[in-house]
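Fold this sequence, please.
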Amino acid sequence: MAEVRHRVRVFVYRYAERQPNYLLLRSAQGIEGFWTPIHGPIGFGEKLEVAIRREVMDDAGLGRPEELIDLQMPSRWVVGDEEIVEWNFGFKTAPT
């Protein structure tokens, strides 16, 4: 039986001149790293919104979202004896 791990993937964006601008980060793997949305684990008993805010604050230093959108597109895959469930959200920031 596979161990299930839950993660969040957060697409941080803002509107500038009526068009969205997205924040992508590159992992610490240097030149071989990929540009991705913010992502990370959900702690045991942690609520989705708390995990989202924690990851965004840790990775980008951003506080409360102007709007938090559940994209209703969970991803699920199995790697060896682990099953990963990733919850996708949009995180709208205020324009600067």
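The helical segments are 48-60. The chain has a mean pLDDT of 91.
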